[in-house]
Amino acid sequence: MAEYFDKTLSTKIDLSDEQKFKELFNGYFAPLCFFARQYVGNFHDEDVVSSVFSTLYQKKLKFNTQEEFVFYIYKSVKNRCLDTLKSDIRMQDRNQAYFNELEHENLFNQIVENEIMAETYREIQLLPTYSRRIIEMSYLEGLSNQEIADELQLSLQTIKNYKRNAVISLKTVLLRKIMTFLFFLSTF
Q: If both were cysteines, with which of 98, 114, 127, 175 could 131 make a disulfide (CB 3.0 to 4.6 Å apart)?
């Protein structure tokens, strides 16, 4: 590689010559990666340089002097680095916007869930005494129907009837309120 840089700079460069292209690629790849690293860090440096060489290979450009080629390739790498940084910033902005939207949606979902639970508790409090107590013991305290029957000294069938009627009543009232709430939200 050292002898590569000893060549005279005034020679013409034709990138359609594959041997010349390979020679330039081998001679400039590492230094250009070092140069790119100053802009984009280790993560993108080789990708940037490879991309520039790929473009050069496709265009099969010709340069009058090696100085012209060197200036062109360094300028191309710098520009590609800046494009990469802009692209990364746009991606970060999109990711931040997406995160903010998820955070907002999560907060919204938490509010809706909390409001539904609060409304459920309010409706439970409006149930007749036995129905309310059976629902609380069953769903809030986690007792089985038999345990509730034993504690309240009622038959198992009576507990099941109270519980079924209370659940039907709660479903009817809560479904109507939830539909109203969702309709209200959809107007925003």
A: 127
